[in-house]
Amino acid sequence: MIALVGFTAMPIIYMVSTAFKPLDELFLYPPRFFVQKPTLRSFFDLLTATDSSIVPFSRYIFNSVFISVAIVALSLFVCSLGAYVLSKFKPPGAGFIFAVILSALMFAPQVTQIPTYLIVSKLGLVNTYWALILPKVAVAFNIFLMKQFFDQIPDALIEAAHIDGASEWKIFWRVIMAVSKPAWATLIIFTFIGNWNDYFSALVFTTSESMKTLPLAIQTLAGGPGVVARSGALAAGTFLVTLPPILIFLLFQKLIMNTMVHSGIKS
């Protein structure tokens, strides 16, 4: 397992090493895996490469952070509520609704990109934050994930809360979400990583430079002229794009690995 983990981590280690390499080490042949003289020059080159833009580099970072955090918060709220209703209230047509959600999992996001763009355009939301946030709020996989987890929660736990006089909102927030930490921690990680690394949505739904996200800005930098000369800047940019998902995973990994807690109630 240690050997497998080490082999899997090699690309990440090489990426971090390359981000701190000076210019003479970047073009060595054969290339060195580990940096010998670490420097922050590549990060300054990244800022210099984006200085020609009409917006500062910090704007790209803000856009990515704001959009990713907003999507995570709204998706967690909406998908958890929807999954809770389908799992515990079972309204008329719940089976059909869940079947539609399952069928939506079969479609790749690119398949629905054109109708999504048409809807966003008709609403007049193109080139706004709403265009990048709203289509990602109600995600079929997130609802499926939360519902499958809520199905494991004993109904006796909810009945006990009703007997104690708790309202439905209080049961949802204080009981259901409290024992579902592994599920919503997994949802947070998947949603954040998926949207943090997404450059295609910003490419489709935005037209101005000030609305670009960090991955799209890095992709633009990688596709422009002088890409060889900007190898260090690209490595630094890749490091900045990759670092937040790793930190998010390290923050929530214990919750993901924890098993379901049934509070001692057995059905």
UniProtKB/TrEMBL annotation:
Coiled coil: none annotated. GO terms for cellular component: plasma membrane. The keyword Transport applies. The chain crosses the membrane at residues 60-86, 93-109, 129-150, 171-193, 233-252. This is Carbohydrate ABC transporter permease. It is a multi-pass membrane protein. One of its GO terms (biological process) is transmembrane transport. Residues 61-252 form the ABC transmembrane type-1 domain. It comes from the Bacteria. InterPro entries: MetI-like, MetI-like_sf. Its main location: membrane. Belongs to the binding-protein-dependent transport system permease family. It holds the Pfam family BPD_transp_1. The keyword Lipid biosynthesis does not apply. PROSITE patterns: ABC_TM1. Keywords: Cell membrane, Membrane, Transmembrane, Transmembrane helix, Transport. It is found in: Cell membrane.
